[in-house]
Give the backbone structure.
Amino acid sequence: MIVLLSTTTSAIYSGAEFEINNNLKTATFISQKFEVGPGKVAVKTFLDIEFPKGHIGVKSFDSEIVDEEGNSVPLHEAYLHHWFAIKYQSKVWNNTSPIPHDPMEDAIYIRNQGTCNSYILPAYWGLGGESRGTISKLPNPYAVELGDPKNVPIGFQEKWLLNLMVIDTRGAIDKKSCSECRCNNFINLPKNFYNDTFGIDGKPLSPNYKGGLFCCKDELQCKLKKGFEAPRRKLAIRYKITWVDWDQHQIPVRFYILDATDRVKKIGSLVIHDCQAEYTIPPSNHDIKHSPHHIQKANIPVEKGGYLIYGTAHMHTGAVNGSIYGQDGRVLCTSNPTYGKGEEPGNEKGYVVGMSTCYPEPGSIKIKDGEIVTMESRYKSGYRTGVMGHMYIYLADRLPENIYRPTQV
């Protein structure tokens, strides 16, 4: 999301579970542990995480929160606000040059091909509370090509970092406000918070900012029920990656994150993107049950198009759906939430526990170069802060040789 390197730590290697099924390889890794307590926020960035090596094609990347024993942790105890895997190239330090104190000195961040500006939404993979129930697998023969030596400068090596935000809502007076990062729900915001905190535009945060990422800083404390006590505990991200060795049979895809808050401007032929990453839904003046949905949308030009291979949305509780439309109004993809109905991990009542995915018939949907697509984020009415409406899509330049190519796309 916004990489908060002030809480950066290098990864501790865990010794992955590894298996091979025909040409498909799978490994499960455990991130470095981090500690939380009732009502506490944890915002962490782990550098140089374990990741498959070599020239490969990644087919899927899935993750969840686990405790020290490797047990899945439910969202109503530890809300996974987001996790993001971000690629970077790190300088190789040798005996002739001293290793710097900052491990990211001279590092080069490699963002996805999405349209957002600079450091906003740069990840290659990432979701939130819906992670367990959202399919990430790419259909054959498509894959995310990584580790090609031709794309790594001499003296550098390709690495990955993991950025995450987890909110321990055990004992919270208002779990919804806590998980939405409502500023007035935290008891230890700095005294000069609004003057000393800079927003996504690089300016001091407005007093009108009532909740979201900037009010969920590491170690901030949500209000707890009187007398509630529970021990601090250590958690981790368990992530599973499947991949193949890269060869001529694979077709590379490009990954895009489209943001419903992108305030696109055009100056002559220059397109300027201004993604906000999150937004607030104002209180409704009507009966919530009969109020129309709140719709946030952006018209986003896609400089380099391609065949749509996969799509899904990242959204929070209250989501109705996320959709993208072509310039002519055709539906490219609609992603719908699944809400939990129980207590167990993956089925937590009231939480978004999965988002549906789009797998168009090969060649049936193509975004043209320069086409303006509309990203639409639709939520139930009612006051919400830190709302997100992101669409994740994979585009390919070509189809397999044996696929029929329709003349109308």
